[in-house]
Amino acid sequence: MWRYSLHQKEINMNREQTGQEIAQLALTWATAELQQDIALLEKLLANDFVGVGTLGFLLSKQEWLARHRSGEMKYSVHALDEVKVRGYDETAILIGRLTQEATYRDNPINTQLRTTLVFIRQDGQWHLASLHLCTIGSPPSFARS
Q1: Range(s) of the domain holding residue 16
Q2: Terminal-residue alpha carbon distance, the chain
Q3: pTM of the entire structure?
Q4: DUF4440 domain: which residues (predicted)?
Q5: Domain of 132: which CATH number?
Q6: In whole angstroms, what separates CA 8 from the centre of its chain?
Q7: CA distance 31 to 22
Q8: Residue 84 in 3-state DSSP?
Q9: Per-residue pLDDT tens for 68-80?
Q10: Which residue from 20, 8, 13, 11 is spatially nearest to 94, judged by alpha carbons?
């Protein structure tokens, strides 16, 4: 019994540490997006990264980075908050709120999004493998109590 409790405490401490590490990494990602730091984004994104946009479109790592390289995507605000992290061995899932003030091809994108970031650990390093963005809205009237 004592060994189990000690082992469980160790697992809980590791999960908490992983959660803090992932939350910090997500903030690093958000800042790199804001600053169009392509070199850092290149390191943070997994090679097989897939981003799911608000309208369901998919972007590969190279397509995601191309938005910054071309200068078509520009942020004045790219802030992540309401962060919750769950860790599973070599995977961590973060759900948060992303506030954006941006332009894409000179079209304004000022919105709050719910985002899910999926991180994987490869060769001892965490990488952003996928993200999904959706507009935050209210439940439909039939679902409200």
Answers
A1: 2-143
A2: 45
A3: 0.85
A4: 22-127
A5: 3.10.450.50
A6: 28
A7: 14
A8: strand
A9: 999 999 999 999 9
A10: 20
